[in-house]
Amino acid sequence: MNKIKLNNQKKIGLIIIAVMIVFVLSGFLNRNSFDAMNKDLILKGSSILHPFGCDEFGRDILKRTQVGMGISVAISFFSVIIGTFFGTLIGALCGYFGGIVDDFLNAIINVLFAVPSLLLALVFVSLFGSGMVQVTVALGIAIVPSFAKMMRSEFKKQRELEYVKMAKLIKVPTARIIFVHILPNVLETFLNCVFIAFNNCILAEAGLSFLGIGVQPPLASLGSLLSDAGGYIRSAPYMVLFPALSLILLLFGIGLLSSGESFHHAYSKRFKD
Amino acid sequence: MKKIKTLVLFCLLALTTVLCACTDDKAKNSGSITIGIAQDIDDSLDPHKMVAAGTKEIFFNVFEGLVKPDSNGNIVPAVAESVEVSEDKLCYTFKLRNGIKFHDGNAVTIEDLEYSINKFAGRDGGEPVSSAFLNVSEVNVISDDTIEIRLASADPAFLSYLASVEAAIIPKSNATPDTVCIGTGPYKYVSRSPLQNVVFERFDEYWGEGGDIKNVTFKICTNADTIAMELEGGTIDMCIHLTKGQKMQLDKENFTIYEGTMNLVQALYLNHSFEPFNDVNVRQAMNYVCDAQEIMDYVSDGAGSKIGTSIYPSFGKYFDESLTSVYDVNVDKAKELMAKSAYPDGFDMTITVPSNYEQHVDTALVLKNQLALIGINASIEKVDWDTWINDVYLGRNYESTVIGVDAANLSANALLSRFTSEAGDNFTNYNNPAYDEAFNNAVNATDDETATKYFKECARILNSDAANVYIQDLPDFVAINKKFEGYSFYPLYVLDLTKIKTVK
Predict the structure, then answer these.
(1) Is any Cβ of chain A less than 8 angstroms from the Cβ of B180?
(2) What would the mean pLDDT of B114-125 be, rounded to a whole number?
(3) Would residue B359 count as lying in a domain?
């Protein structure tokens, strides 16, 4: 009864993500260190000990990709939590109450929305310095406007429906109506938003690192791996290839998972049962 | 029909291009070269107001002082034909070179000399380009082709201050030197398009040998990742200051790579106001554990030269080779020294590095691993260049930083004055009375020998006191398309276009 039926796209997406999770976790078994330098291995190609080759400091690229992906995913995960929390809260308040609350919060969101999210993150990073925490918070803030917009329109729709009116009539507390009654009904949009935001975060983090303001070296993220490798694209193409492939695969997996109308079917099926 | 027309037009165009190239080859000395430079030239065109090292580097070809440096670090006459120095070293008499002309075709007169000297020495009410010129007490015109400069106190390095773009001779008649650029050098300034290029042309009435190539275009390539591609693709023929990564991308068949040094003192500069760095044991331990050779191996394929103090090898007589081996790697000794200090178990520190300089960031990465050997836990903070200038260099609000410090002219003063306790540019907050005394002795010395002796003494103090963790004079790679030849490195940060010739 509680089984959520998945379409093939989502199945493939899940498989890819499972593979990526195993890939990152297997990093703990990889005995190479992500920051140990080795003069003899500078820009050496693939070998049994270092299947992804070594970078300009003789560091193992496999281990760095595993660590980098872990960090990229962690940053995205926490920024999505920050972003969805505030985004949903603001969106729900706007959509449910309307009137002056809506006007006020919506004005703020519109101003934030007018600024490109990457620029917003850039401003934040230049104000508070660069580092993992700052980047996470910056990306989180950057997600808020789009999330709030989405949630606002959903709540506006739901507010007019019978079940909400009934609940109001029998004096169910407002907070309960918002979070217990309405929220589960907008879960479909919510989840899709989360996946898209997660994807955008991974890309934005890669972008920030590429600009040199993401995680600080010697720690790696997918973006910093790519930007470091850029200069060696001719002499050591595998330095770009492997991190780039991992990034593409990860995004593809998440993209598949969030794609299509399937969640709708899955949930409506659940309610029918 | 239309297609045929287009085709014919295209063929004609192609033919014209080919024929143009033919005429180019036949005519001698009318070649052109495009040189990639990393930053836009948005300085003033007044040589006395130029600030950025990158601007002075290329305007070395446009402006000349009374004297100029050559590639061996000697000072040779330029606008002045000869120099006479009086017995007491207080009076310098310059004889104007016969027949020398400005780029606008006018002859250089003694009034121009007087005007220029008064201008750059700050005697016309403006700021002197260097505090060293405050020493000028009198500028007297003796005759139509002779001028003398009198000093308040003897300064053996006075000529080296004059041998720089900052002390260029410019025409008095030019009312707007900020925007109109007239000098006496082998190349004249033609035009500039912001963020695009700067164009120079050979000055055919130059007094000396002059350049070989007629047209020189400096193309501004701010994107470091595309420089190698532009070289390979032929949009630029030459590029200065390549990194190891860019160098490796080039095809050795098509390019000559010249290898020299950048003339910088690269070090892990320590803020002496930050707690552990005021302890000489800690500083010496850090010096013992840092392996300059290993850094060179990682950062620049083993190229670069060790320094050991704030003087780089091109400084010839001031450079003391023995100082480079004082702190040969000795981890046990380093651990001993750490045990003697207040931090036997090590400490945490931050290395602030400007993110636009890849070599410095990479150096910091290797240093982090080396410092870990004696329990020092260094974390790296990459900042953008403006933040670095404001917070680290001007604000002195940092713990340590990796950077290269350059010299404005060929006097040891240019490198060593910043470590005196009162110096405005003493960004390391170094404070050592013995050093101040040695430096004062050097500056006040009347003869060159004594001055050199005391400057070397200063360098030795910086070394034995382990003022900073001195690493290297960075290697500099210059790539030139095989169509051209003849780049030569200077002991200063300059690019001499007259040395570059077309291969016949």
Answers:
(1) no
(2) 89
(3) yes
